[in-house]
Design a protein that fits this description.
Helix content of chain A: 25-40%
Strand content of chain A: 15-25%
Mean pLDDT of chain A: 89
Low-confidence stretches of chain A: 105-109
Largest interface: A-B, 41 and 42 residues
Distance between the termini of chain A: 67 Å
Number of helices of chain A: 15
Largest sheet of chain A: 6 strands, mixed
Oligomer: homodimer
Number of strands of chain A: 27
Strand order of the largest sheet of chain A: 12-11-10-13-15-14
Chain lengths: 626, 626
């Protein structure tokens, strides 16, 4: 019977319709509700436990669930989502997904402010009816297919991937209606029996130095379905790009190791997306990748050695278009993988995607874009010109090299307020549960608040005159307690130290001074800036005032400051969904001038000033510390 | 010193010039004189022994030769060709290559009558000087390469294989002069340090049902350097195409087994050519393949099932162009492998190549082309039309299914004369030594002579009235002794039996009647035929009169009959060496009409008549038995 039941997933407040006899895991996965299921629905791992208080609309607890669930869990309504099935016993079931069963949310990182673009995908599907051969009609299978596509769809001059040709006769014999998937109106990359027009997916993938994020997109309507991310497995071979390049030179084969490790990571994410969304990898026909130049070279297997040596020349700059099977990316093996073009040795396809998603390739008022990460890309548009540079800002704002730093995932403190009188600390934690560390936005808050209440001075040193139990010596270091261990989800206090603050100063000084150099080069004063656009993994929760207080971004009105989230991923999605956006992306490198900071006197001077809080040049931050 | 010495290789009568201090093996290999060398010149295998009576022009016998050669051999002038070096002691050295040291000659099979074409290769080499990058000149390596090719060679709009891009920086850093290999004026498929313009090779490969032949061609001047051949390793899975197709259906993976087996065979031949001619596989940039439709499908991995089922539809007809690495053919991995287009399910790329090398795509008088093999392709040109068909003729003329049949290699009897009075047999043997069997041309001779002297009648039965010890019963069979065991290199007599003769009749009837059907279809009488062109592995030594006597070919003047040898291989070489010939080959299938014999009443009638010697319709062979 095809009767539907309503299922409400909490705490998401998401109401969906589902068929009777579906498992709750099925329903969740079909609707983008992430539930852990490490055994793949085999009733073994017990990770998919959910709570259903009123079980009138479910089957009785089964013999497979009993060994996995504790007695008190069963009493409290716990079920395994892979074994609990909808029945006709109720027309509505409310399912609570407890924290431990949720696929780990990666806040902000999957979020990117792409501009809406008209879907205009490069890959399209065409269902056609192919005639059968006879002794009189001697067309080959390929001719027969091309003939149908021309007659019914008006398509001409198509080529066919040899791998498709190999299996074509069996497909044609199994069904009169077949669906051809065509890439760029020129190449047949898949032929499937029946009408499969609704199964047309693509991937936008951001290869960060620290993290890979992969977004599944329905190419039919251009909508992103779900994004997942993981640590870049290359981290095992070096935290920053320079150490990975060094590793690649240690012995023959290491370059391959780095390539396979990042591609292996992508394949894990693809597998996760496909199993969660119940789609076949063969129905993903294209992937658009972005990343910095080193990630570009390492993923494509290009010799990266000279990226680390002056004059830092990249091997290749233009868009790379290669068959998925040739890279080993596990989507449809005839599908295409595109790596967007790069700008220079230190400004990669991520910057191209930033420019695309922020729309700053178009004419408009002066705009400054900062894509903050382990490397920060800085882009300035003014009067029809776009210039860019890159600086090594370090991973402080991603929580790395900060003693209690962490990424913006559940358990991270995301914002902090320090009381001026009592020095008490208020904080907000991502997700539910006790805090375990500080993510980027909290680190900015902490430094800004410590400065504002006078606990640190303008060079980031603690003020010995302040008396509070939160301020204390720790060996040769000094630290301030954000969260006492009683309130924390870890065994120690959560603190921020002078050494941590120094890391922040180095990072923010690099980022600020890179922007200042570009502004000086084009003669743009901060008051002229119409927009300051900030991309990066700390996302929309950054306090603008605090970011100005520490001198990370120019001291301008909040209204002119926007956070874009993962702008590179957003740009990749746009290039995936729209042919004209892709052409635009191909065009961007030739429109952008690269500025080499390594040989810039201005950069050194600006950097030295920017090591102060907010800046040694007080005129540039008149309102910052108010 | 660069003084040259003359070296005469016997029994070939080939005089060449060589440098002092070269080994005889080097000199032989450089000049296409096949000498066995299984250890690759390491003085171990002893296969390369040659006889030099006057050793004044050679070094003394060395300590490495002594353990390998017997004392009496040394006394008789034997040397190892890999260790014997030219000295200034004489200005001429005569070298006898004994039978046992010769690379097995494959007579006729490597010979093909290609028309001379102007070399116009698709693959060309361009040496250029690439500038070095600097902080001011920020072109990527790829841009730098493209810039040099445009400035120095006027080449524009080139793409670069990603595999080349991967190693490009290392090549560019190792040498200012580099050589780019460019395919079809559009794609860079190799970048080598230094000027390597003289190392530019290609392969023409004929994939026969029974045999693979591979010809190495210097693409610089279009000259064939050397050809080698081997049994098609797919024979292990079935002797004819139908049994191989059946094998491919037995279980999943068998199609792959067949594909890998033929590609493995090709790679053995490529390895042999490269080691003999001392070239690197990486310097072979293109291969052009021909073969019948089943060989085409099996090599490319296309589903062959429907080739064996009415209406016998091929999967694909047009030229296939694929990277060598994607097929696993071990030439330069970025090189291209082309399979020439096919005409129909039973008329393949070999027929296209036949038409190309025989020149019958051009207008001209009526011409009939027979490519005789296990399958025989028959092509008729008349009045601007070309029609073709194919018949299963069986491998009798390749010596298979004939008790004492063998291929045209050393030891095969190649021609026979039977005395009308005494019934004594004169014969000629290929190579030196005693006969071991009968090759195709001898089989034709035997049947024709037996008919002419009255030992067999017009339906191929022995005449019981003839009294000669050579004619005898053998079980239920009757046989005629060609060679008594005393004269033979085997322990038994070499005979031809009634059953053998019946195989010949079936084969020749199929071939003749296929031609007759086409002639009738176009209204061409034999007296109008300007040319009868015969391709196939039995080659130039076929006695034209005897071929007419058995009714294999139409009874016309000898002057209008030509033997082309391996015409398919010759056509592949033409398409390899010349861009316009390749275009012509691509065009041929659309110009040729396929005639299906399976539904032809005429064929059945002609076939029945042709089972007689020369034919039941005596008017068609007025001169044959004279």
């Amino acid at each position: 019977m095809d009767t539907n039941v309503k299922v409400l997933f909490e705490p998401y407040g998401r109401m969906v319709e589902a068929k009777i006899s579906s498992t709750l895991l099925d329903v969740a996965q079909k609707n983008g509700i992430g539930i852990r299921s490490e055994c793949g629905g085999k009733q073994v791992c017990g990770k998919c436990r959910v709570i259903v208080n009123d079980q009138a609309g479910l089957n009785h607890i089964t013999d497979r669930e009993k060994p996995v669930l504790a007695e008190d869990e069963i009493a409290n309504g716990y079920r395994l989502a892979c074994e609990a099935r909808l029945t006709s016993g109720s027309d509505k079931v409310t399912v609570m997904v407890p924290v431990e069963s949720r696929l780990r949310p990666r806040r902000f990182t999957e979020w990117g402010e792409e501009r809406r673009v008209r879907p205009e995908p490069i890959v399209k599907k065409y269902p056609v009816t192919v005639t059968r051969p006879s002794l009189e009609d001697r067309m080959s299978d390929v001719e027969r297919l091309l003939d149908a596509l021309q007659r019914e769809q008006g398509l001409v001059d198509l080529t066919v991937d040899l791998q498709i040709v190999r299996e074509l006769p069996n497909t044609l014999h199994s069904s009169d209606t077949i669906t051809a998937t065509i890439w760029d109106e020129s190449e047949i990359i898949s032929v499937e029996a029946g009408n499969t027009s609704d199964k047309l997916f693509g991937l936008a993938i951001d290869i960060g130095t620290s993290k890979i994020t992969c977004s599944l997109v329905n190419l039919g309507n251009g909508e992103a379905i779900r994004s997942v991310s993981m640590e870049n497995p290359q981290i095992a071979y070096g935290e920053d790009v320079i150490s990975r390049i060094a590793f690649s030179q240690e012995r023959a084969g290491n370059r391959r190791v780095l390539q396979e490790s990042v591609i292996g990571g992508i394949n894990v994410l693809v597998g996760q997306l496909c199993s969660e969304m119940r789609i076949r990898t063969g129905n993903i026909y294209e992937a658009v990748l972005v990343g910095n130049t080193a990630m570009h070279h390492l993923l494509l297997g290009l010799e990266p050695k000279y990226l680390a040596r002056s004059p830092f020349t990249p091997v290749s700059r233009s868009l790379v278009d290669v068959k998925a099977r040739d890279l080993g990316i596990e989507i449809n093996s005839c599908g295409h993988v595109l790596f967007l073009p790069i700008i220079d040795g230190f400004v990669g396809a991520d910057a191209v995607a930033d420019i695309l998603s922020a729309g700053i390739y178009r004419s408009g008022g002066p705009a400054l874009l900062l894509d903050i990460g382990t490397n920060t890309e800085v882009i300035l548009r003014h009067g029809g010109r776009i210039i860019c540079c890159s600086c090594a800002s370090g991973p402080a704002f991603e929580g790395v090299h900060i003693e209690h730093g962490m990424k913006a995932v559940d358990g991270a403190i995301e914002s902090i307020r320090i009381d001026k009188e009592t020095h008490d600390v208020e904080f907000k934690v991502l997700g539910e549960g006790k805090p375990v560390g500080l993510c980027g936005s909290a680190i900015i808050d902490a430094v800004a608040q410590l400065l504002r209440v006078g606990i640190i001075d303008s060079i980031g040193k603690f003020n010995a005159g302040i008396k509070t139990p939160r301020l204390r010596e720790a060996g040769k270091n000094k630290e301030f307690v954000i969260t006492w261990s009683e309130e924390a989800g870890i065994d120690s206090d959560i603190t921020i130290s002078e050494r941590d603050i120094n890391e922040v100063l180095l990072a923010k000084a690099a980022i600020y001074s890179a922007g200042a150099v570009l502004m000086k080069k084009m003669g743009v004063g901060k008051e002229e800036l119409r927009k300051v656009l900030i991309a990066g993994a700390f996302g929309s929760h950054v306090d603008k005032r605090n970011a100005k207080t520490i001198g990370l971004i120019p001291d301008i009105d909040d209204g002119r400051i926007s956070f874009l989230g993962n702008a590179a991923l957003a740009g990749a999605k746009m290039a995936l969904s729209s042919r004209s956006m892709r052409r635009r992306a191909e065009d961007i490198p030739s429109k952008v001038e690269y500025v080499e900071l390594a040989i810039s006197e201005d950069f050194r001077r600006e950097f030295t000033n920017a090591l102060w809080l907010p800046n040694r040049n007080p005129g540039s931050f008149p309102n910052a510390t108010r």
